[in-house]
Amino acid sequence: GSPTVASTKSTPRVSAHRKNHKSYTMPARVMQGQMYNGFACLDEARTFSCKEENIAPYTLPQEALTYVPHPDAVVTTWANGDSERKIHCNIRLKGQEVERLAMLRGEARAEGTEFSPTVSSMATRFLSRARMDPKKALKLMTATQEWRCQYFKDGPVSDESVIEDMKYGITYFTGRDNALRPAIVVRAIRIPQQWYKEKRIDKFIRVLIFCMEYFLRYMVVPGKVENLSVIVDLKGLSLSQVPLSALSEVYKVMSHHYIGRVFRFYVCNMSTTLG
After folding, report:
1. What is the third-level CATH fold of 162-268?
2. Which residue of 77, 240, 256, 257 has the lowest C-beta tally within 10 Å?
């Protein structure tokens, strides 16, 4: 597998004179002391760094820039009548969403809670997860803010820090679906046994986080493409070999701290014993 995405059409690779330039999500302290999306701001942590020459030339297809998502890709409705918003940016919210967002901002002010721009811009995603309960949404936001501060306290996840581990092909992007959502594959059998022996599953999680930050930086178009699908491939693994703890961490990171970004979780090549 490869950590990059291929497509027949794409925006061109950046010019050569920028190849040694590192790209970051947002400079620290750029928003400190201000309001962002109606929330008091903390410094924005540097979470991601990647040299331009390591950005795949077909990361973002041209079609994504003019793509108009189908209503089902914006708000997904389930058979039981429940619905979930999937596209949150550059789009008109429903009346209840606007009302609950205002309540969430009020809860944050009352608690004196501050968030980085990245977290505050996810406010409606937290509301969706909390089933429109502002108090629960605030707890989720706070947990993610604390996680990001802790995880990235020593600096961004860089291409240089994960490039050797990515060569195992454990986690990689593999194209997009008909709504232009990227698919990320997790090949559990490729996790080195040495990592289990040394209790270094954190190396696997770090690769996954790098991929998610790469996705957010280069593969989305707000209002058009904001989600991805996760394909967990269990090929070659028996019941006793399935790394449940590692896969549990995948779910935890993706569903708790990159909230609202996973459109679907798929599991393929599962043992009949597990099925």
Report:
1. Phosphatidylinositol Transfer Protein Sec14p (3.40.525)
2. 240
Where are the chain's structural domains? 16-151, 162-268
Instruction: Report the alpha-carbon distance of residue 188 to residue 245 in Å, rounded.
Output: 11
**Predicted TM-score (pTM) of this structure:** 0.84
pLDDT 10s digits, 203-253: 999 999 999 999 999 999 999 999 999 999 999 888 778 888 888 888 888
Spell out the long-range contacts of 96-100 with Cβ–Cβ below 8 A and sequence spacing 24 or more: 96/132, 97/124, 97/127, 97/132, 100/127, 100/132, 100/134, 100/137
Which residues are within 8 A (CB) of 125 and not within 5 positions of it... i.e. 6 or more apart? 88, 259, 260, 261
Residue pLDDT, tens place only, 111-149: 999 999 999 999 999 999 999 999 999 999 999 999 999
Q: Are 139 and 66 in contact (CB under 8 A)?
A: no
* Under 8 Å between Cβ of 166 and 207: yes
Q: Which conformational region is residue 7 in: left (phi greater than 0), alpha (psi within -120 to 50 degrees), or beta?
A: beta
DSSP character string of 165-232? HHTT-SEEEEEE-TT--EEEEEEGGGS-HHHHHTT-HHHHHHHHHHHHHHIIIII-BTTTB--EEEEE
